[in-house]
Amino acid sequence: MKSLSKLIKPNILKLDPYTSARDEYQGAEGIFLDANENPYDLNYNRYPDPYQSQLKARISKWRSVDADRIFIGNGSDEIIDLLIRATCESGKNRILSLDPSYGMYKVSSAVNDIAIDLVALNTDLSVNMNDLSAKLSVDHKLIFINSPNNPNGGIIPRDIIEHILTATDNLVVIDEAYIDFSNTDSWCHRLDEFDNLIVLQTFSKSLGAAGIRVGMGFMNPYLIQILNKIKPPYNISIPNQEAALSRLDNLDKVKAYVSQIKASREKLIKSLNGLSIVEYVFPSEANFLLVRFYDHAKVFSTLIEHKIIVRDRSSNTNCENSLRISIGTEPEMEKLMRILKSI
Description:
It is a single chain. The protein has twelve helices and eleven strands. It is globular, with a radius of gyration of 22 Å. By secondary structure, the protein is an alpha/beta fold. The chain starts with 9 loop residues before the first helix and ends with a helix. It folds into two domains: 246 residues, 3-Layer(aba) Sandwich (Aspartate Aminotransferase, domain 2), CATH 3.40.640.10; 91 residues, Alpha-Beta Complex (Aspartate Aminotransferase, domain 1). The strands form two sheets. The protein has a seven-stranded mixed beta sheet with strand order 1-7-6-5-4-2-3, with helices on both faces. It has a four-stranded antiparallel beta sheet with strand order 8-9-11-10. β8 and β9 form a beta hairpin.
């Protein structure tokens, strides 16, 4: 295994990070005259914990991952960007991802002026192992694997991910934004086996807290130290930390909603397969379905007329005539099916 320090850009290794007032004194009580804050309690007049210690402790208990392996980002998007900035040099390093997949991998690589290579999925959106193996021979600092994959919801088989992890010493990022809607185990529980494994999760999907923008990265503690060097000092606000903690207080309700969404997904698959306008429903272990219609444009415009908004994914690789449909409430799904049956 290549030393993780060799994967980090030299300027980041040398960086003398910004230190905040809360780095120098971490106590909860005292007369705080160190951070130029307004001393009067106007709600949130104090800076937040820059390392989200309480939230990490709760996530640690929930996900059974040591707290020193947890990084909290302003959404998973911030973590993606920080990983690129920590490791990749413009004109020198490359990134690898699947195609189609979550669009922010390409966007973040472009913003940072880093080349990205894409492994095109097969027509059924399964992994093309020949193409993947060929691309793995190139030195990619970061490899992003979205599983369940967006836009189709398919799980990337474990043997393929193991093949990637063992075939490279570079960082392999498994983006598990939708993992709680799947019957597949998280890769979080295999961090001890692979120093180069990073797992991303989020409060936005199963936890139903997209509005608070809290993402989680599970990784080697050394990489946590690197990301802490380059992240904004207070990247997660007090209200957002409080909201995340509150959501973790209601995991029973979250689990009930997840079970309901999974049941609704299976019901919708069955209903869609009975429609003459549907060509194919891609297998999904997420909270959405990718559906290929014979005339997707007509379906899309008809749904819009009835104020039912879905995503047109027909421009994605091998997603011709396809719309992505999120699983809504039972009344919303009933209305969706009524309109689809009328087309």
